[in-house]
């Protein structure tokens, strides 16, 4: 039992031959590849602006032969990452110059996506394109006859496949300047009519009429500023002999629903529906004495029509009818 077991090592052997000093960092065990390898620069493998998904996807794309399809759905079937992560990684590679994706229309009218992979973005030398891998069979050399002497020089080897030139991507056309759209400005609204003389009575009647509109149409609830702005226009209606009921009916009927701008609607109606002056009156009066005032409005005792007079009574029409009947 005291015989030492010489087959059991005294300590674990180092994975690297000749390693005597332990190191906390990575230890590389490198073997030279003879076939089936891809050269990738450290600018990609150690890129600080790309995610690990983007770096791994770029390494996979650079290892593929020319003509391989690398659609998002095909890559999602090949790798466990989702289509969203693969699409984001492709956008990262395109943003850093490792990929260029463009839409190309074929001769049959079909539109496909052309993807160009750059193993070193920003290089000024001409790129070396990889031809598609084609399986070729070299012809067997004919065996010389038995009587013929051996040739002094070795037979020529069959030429290998010629690289198929790949056309460079078409230059991206410069964006054409878009024409600046011309904005059409709406014409200014017509000015609000103004009375010849805004007397205190006209001002008071027009203000009361505008403030009372909300009783007949709740949508026409005006602010004090709107009433102060519209008062001169409504005073022009009263100055031209329009009855207040007629004005109220004109301003409150056939209102749109919903009514967004009541003050704007009233301004439009006051301006565009302004009645002409009554026959026998003139919009522009001759030179008037500064102390002359416009007679106030009175309601006719017979027909309730508004007329101007310093004293209440009957309007001109009723007086004419009374004189004719007499």
Shape: rod-shaped
Overall average pLDDT? 78
| Percentage of residues assigned to helices | 25-40%
Strand order of the largest sheet: 1-2
The computed structural class is mainly alpha
Biggest sheet details: 2 strands, antiparallel
Terminal-residue CA separation: 162 Å
Number of H- or I-type helical stretches: 10
Uncertain residue segments: 283-292
What share of residues are in beta strands? Answer: 5-15%
Supply Rg: 49 Å
Number of beta-strand segments: 4
Question: What series of H and E elements makes up the topology?
Answer: HHHHEEHHHHHEEH
Keywords for this entry:
Arc Repressor Mutant, subunit A; 326 residues; two-stranded antiparallel sheet; 4 strands; mainly alpha
What is the compact description of this entry?
The protein is 30% helix and 6% strand.
Describe how the helices and strands are arranged:
Layout: H1 42-45, H2 52-63, H3 72-78, H4 83-95, E1 99-105, E2 111-117, H5 200-211, H6 213-216, H7 224-239, H8 244-252, H9 262-272, E3 297-299, E4 306-308, H10 316-325
Antiparallel strand pairs: 1-2, 3-4
Helix pairs in contact: 2-4, 5-7, 7-9
Summarize the structure in words.
By secondary structure, this protein is mainly alpha-helical. Among the domains are: 76 residues, Arc Repressor Mutant, subunit A, CATH 1.10.10; 87 residues, no CATH class; 32 residues, no CATH class. The chain is 30% helix and 6% strand. It has a two-stranded antiparallel ribbon with strand order 1-2. Strands 3-4 form a two-stranded antiparallel sheet. A hairpin with a 6-residue loop joins strand 3 and strand 4. Helix 2 packs across helix 4, helix 5 packs across helix 7 and helix 7 runs parallel beside helix 9.
